[in-house]
Specification:
The complex is a heterodimer of chains A (about 325) and B (about 350). Chain A is built from 13 helices and no strands. Chain A has about 325 residues and is mainly alpha-helical. The longest helix of chain A is centred in the first third of the chain and has 36 residues, at about 85-120. The radius of gyration of chain A is 24 Å and the shape is globular. The two termini of chain A are about 15 Å apart. Helices cover about 35% and strands about 20% of the residues of chain B. Chain B is built from 13 helices and twelve strands. Chain B has an eight-stranded mixed β-sheet with strand order 6-7-8-3-9-10-12-11, with helices on both faces. Chain B has a four-stranded antiparallel β-sheet with strand order 2-1-4-5, with helices on one face. The chains are: A mainly alpha (about 325), B alpha/beta (about 350). Chain B: It is found in: Cell inner membrane.
Chain lengths: ~325, ~350
């Protein structure tokens, strides 16, 4: 197992390297001069050259990349143009907020998804199955920013039960696990949970139906296991795939929550990314994309390792 | 019903067993009796209902989707009268089963040892360590090499023959009286097949087990079984001792099965005899003998009326209107079925 993790870590290194190159080049792929956001429109050529040198844009690309990578490896992602604060600090805070929101959403989505999936898989073609399937199709296909707005209209504007936006009453953007902050996370988390719920429910349904149709289930019954005993085997067989899907969904939520975070003004990476794009804050953009990409790489690694631990056939095959 | 004295109760007794899935009558009135300590082989083509008959003994069908009628007695229990709890005690405890494809019959994510221990602890209150010791002894009993190590193997880490041995060990783990074997050698290499059959025979003798083995391989049936029952389209068409069935068959279908074996040297250029046609559609069962459309002896009556079961000698029963003609045809050797000889 240890050796396996080590092996996976080695194979991940080139991926991480590639990701960093892409992130770095993004700035140069973007149309327009990266400096145009920093400089006033009437800047003199001397000022432009000076800034160019200050940001290191006068050096050849590979050298720029080396310098940038060196800084990144030391935790220095540069300084945000818009706020003047270190990018690492901005991104770090946003990552924590996103992570909290994504985790809560995944937890909700996973719980309901697994529940619906098992019910549907066990009672295939029954009314319960139809209802669960309809719910999961709804979950996968409903536009979540729309759902978010509807929820805000119903629960905040009309009923006034829950706050519509932000992460906390103080507006500081630091979420804490207390009752007041909990109220702020409910709506965005439910909105975000709908997609993983649908995907997990559909996957688990297919998974459970497939497992139940396998010969070993009959063999388990033949050796006298109760339905509960058989159920435990089904869970154990479904777990690796279900967890893998959950991990990937968590990843997607972390990166793909721009819309939801924007709708709810949740101070996470998606919100930050959105702001960085509109303010042409390139260091911030570069930094947050890099962190998000690295997060995906790490997440895939964790999921792989977890699957190996749960399914004995993977490692040895 | 009073409790009969032990030796008189057969290990398995099926009376008028009928199993239907929806409109399809898969098993259509099967009477079968297996004495204690004996082995019975159920043979027949795919779809003849032999596996369904076997599963009926453990009631292994999803409730609601199947209908079982008749009477099933196994290991002294009235199987159809068992409630949920008693049924799961009965399964694996009194009667256990081994399957055609052992790789698929084990849960892939648990070790073989865990699965044997699970069965033991399901039926008995016993510590994990004691259960493990017994699982180990079982693997030794079925002659799996280095059993200590094999106990911690996952099913996919074993060879086919070894898996089937482990399956047998699992089936025997709670000391059942009756062992049901569903095509236990079909998925195995030819050389391994005979070893598994011999092991079954040996265990049957040593442990006083009663075995029902389902197979389409007459050779395998003869190897292990005291008696053979031939099934066709959900009915038993002939039963007798293994010797009677092979040497003195009285049903045209049995004769067809015997003739269609490639046993012995087929002369070069000669054709392997087959039974023409295919089994009937069980949802639209024709009246009369279900084998009539494929039978070389079939007359008008065969197409109209189902033949009754006749006892041609003590214990040798045949359901055919033309038992004597069939037996004579078999004794005469080359048959009207042998259409073309090069």
């Amino acid at each position: 197992m240890f050796l396996y993790i080590l092996k996976r870590l080695v194979t991940v290194t080139p991926v991480a390297f590639g990701v960093s190159v892409v992130c770095f080049l993004l700035v140069h792929l973007a149309p327009g001069d990266p400096l145009s956001a920093v400089l006033p429109a009437d800047a003199t050529q001397a000022t432009i050259d000076e800034m160019r040198a200050a940001y290191g844009f006068d050096k050849p690309l590979p050298v720029q990349y080396a310098i940038w990578l060196w800084h990144v490896l030391h935790g220095d992602l540069g300084v945000s143009i818009a706020t003047g604060r270190p990018v690492a600090q901005e991104v770090g805070r946003a990552v924590v907020n996103s992570l909290i929101l994504a985790s809560v959403a995944t937890l909700i989505g996973f719980t309901f998804g697994v529940f619906f999936g098992f019910v549907a898989g066990y009672r295939r073609n029954s009314i319960l199955d139809r209802v669960a399937s309809a719910l999961s199709v709804f979950g996968v296909s409903v536009p979540h920013y729309w759902l978010g707005m509807v929820l805000v209209i119903v629960f905040s504007a009309t009923l006034g039960w829950l706050p519509p936006t932000g992460a906390g009453p103080d507006g500081s953007g630091n979420w804490r696990p207390d009752f007041e902050h909990l109220r702020y996370i409910i709506l965005p988390a439910i909105t975000m949970a709908v997609i993983p719920m649908g995907i997990i429910a559909r996957t688990v349904r297919a998974l459970v139906a497939d497992i139940l149709s396998q010969d070993f289930v009959e063999a388990l019954r033949a050796k006298g296991l109760s339905e509960w005993g058989v159920f435990k085997h089904v869970v154990r067989n479904a777990a690796p795939t279900a967890l893998a899907i959950m991990g990937l969904q968590l990843g997607y939520l972390l990166g793909g929550s721009i819309l939801i975070e924007t709708v709810f003004a949740w101070p996470g990476t998606g919100f930050l990314l959105n702001a960085a794009i509109f303010q042409r804050d390139l260091p911030l953009l570069q930094g947050s994309i890099l962190v998000l990409a690295m997060f995906f790489v790490a997440l895939n690694l964790v999921v792989d390792v977890m699957q190996t631990a749960l399914d004995p056939r993977i490692e040895r095959a | 019903m009073t409790l009969p004295t032990a030796p008189m109760v057969p290990a398995v007794e099926l009376t008028g067993l009928r199993v239907a899935f929806g409109k399809t009558q898969v098993v259509d009135g099967v009477d079968l009796r297996l004495e204690r300590g004996q082995a019975l082989a159920l043979i027949g083509e795919s779809g003849s209902g032999k596996s369904v008959t076997l599963r009926a003994i453990l009631r292994l069908f999803p409730a609601g989707r199947s209908r079982i009628e008749g009477h099933i007695q196994a290991a002294g229990r009235d199987v159809l009268a068992l409630d949920k709890r008693a049924l799961s005690e009965f399964r694996g405890g009194d009667v256990s089963m081994i399957f055609q494809e052992p790789l698929l019959a084990f849960d892939p994510v648990y070790t073989v040892g865990q699965q044997i221990i699970e069965a033991i602890r399901r039926h008995e209150t016993i510590s994990q360590a004691d259960a493990r010791a017994r699982a180990l002894a079982l693997l030794e009993r079925v002659r799996i090499p280095s059993p200590e190590r094999r106990l911690d193997n996952y099913p996919h880490e074993m060879s086919g023959g070894m898996r089937q041995r482990a399956m047998i060990a699992l089936a025997l783990s709670c000391r059942p009286q009756v062992l049901l074997a569903d095509e236990p050698t079909t998925a195995l290499d030819a050389t391994v097949q005979i070893q598994v059959l011999l092991l079954l025979r040996e265990l049957q003798r040593d442990l006083g087990l009663s075995i029902v083995i389902v197979t389409h391989d007459l050779g395998a049936a003869v190897e292990v079984a005291d008696r053979i029952a031939v099934m066709y389209a959900g009915k038993i068409v002939e039963t007798g001792t293994a010797r009677e069935i092979v040497r003195d068959p009285h049903h045209p279908y049995t004769i067809g099965l015997l003739r269609s074996r490639a046993e012995g040297a087929l002369a070069k250029g000669s054709r392997l005899e087959t039974i023409p046609g295919s089994p009937p559609d069980l949802a639209n069962r024709p009246p009369g003998c279900p084998f009539a459309p494929r039978c070389f002896l079939a007359g008008d009556r065969c197409h109209r009326e189902m033949p009754p079961v006749a006892e041609v000698s003590p214990g040798h029963k045949v359901a055919c209107w033309h038992t004597e003609d069939a037996a004579a045809a078999y004794r005469a050797g080359p048959t009207p079925l042998a259409v073309e000889m090069a």
